[in-house]
Every structure is written in C-alpha cells, then in structure tokens.
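Fold it.
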Amino acid sequence: MKLDSLKKLYIKELRELHSAEMQLVEALGRFGNDASFDELKQSFEDHLGQTREHVERLEEIFLRLGEKPGSKTCKGMKALIDEGRSMLEEDGEEAVIDAGLIAVAQKIEHYEIAAYGTLRTFANLLGEEEAADLLQQTLEEEGETDKHLTELAEEMVNSGALTEDYERSGMASRRH
C-alpha cells in the first residue's frame, strides 16, 4: 500500500497494532505461568483477558472501515516479547526475574500507549469518532495496567529483588 494519505497510514498502523496485540495474547500466558509472585501471575492473567478485548475492538474498527487486519508481523512487539522470553530464560532469583518481567511488561505498555494515542488522534482527524472512542477506551486501560504494574513493582516485587541483593551482600548478617 502506498502511503499517500493519513487514512492509509491509519490503516497501516491499525494493522501493526493488531499484530502487536495478537502476539501479546500468545505471550502473556507464558509470562503469567512463569512469574513467581502470585499477584504478578494474576496481573498477567487479567491483562490477557483485557488484551483479547483490545483485539476485538481493533477488529470492530477494521469491520467499520471495510478493511482486514492483515498478516504482517509487528516487529516492535516481537522484539519486546523476545526480551520478555529472554528474561524468563535467565538464571537468577525469582524476585529479580519478576522485577525484570515487570520492566519488560511496562515497556510493552508504553509501546501500546504510544500506538493507541497516535491512532486515536488519527481517528479523530479522519472523523472516525466511534473508532476514536474505542481507541481511547483501550488507551485508558493500557494506562491503568501500566499504573498497576508500577504499584506491583514498588510495593512488592522490587523490594523482594532488593532483599535478594541485601542478603547476598552480607549486609543482613552485619546489621543483626
């Protein structure tokens, strides 16, 4: 497709985001299964359900446009998911690996936030108000997920990872 209009760019970016969400549906199950903190497992499971809804919204937008999602793989999401898989293959303390998973998950969320925000803006400019509303709804959900991941990291996981550092350094025995 020759990118000679905002609408064509909009459709191209919608296809890329659809691919990203489809890849994420596949990856979130593994991330959730391999996380060690129960709250993190639950967070990945919850986001998997939400991501399936995001795919449905994107497919609704394609239907309204009379377009198909396409089959090209989103390379950005593939790289981020590969980073998450690499984290799971690391040899290390569970809390530290979980902290790394949250870091990757937040990179993914920020990628999605940027994509949904851009597409919402395009939809508004193109007069696609219903699509803009759907994209805004997903954008808000992605923001909430990012906020939740920050809370998990700050309130539980990162302190667990820090405790591992603290205990390994010998500081714990020196303070008692």
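DSSP finds six helices and no strands in the chain.
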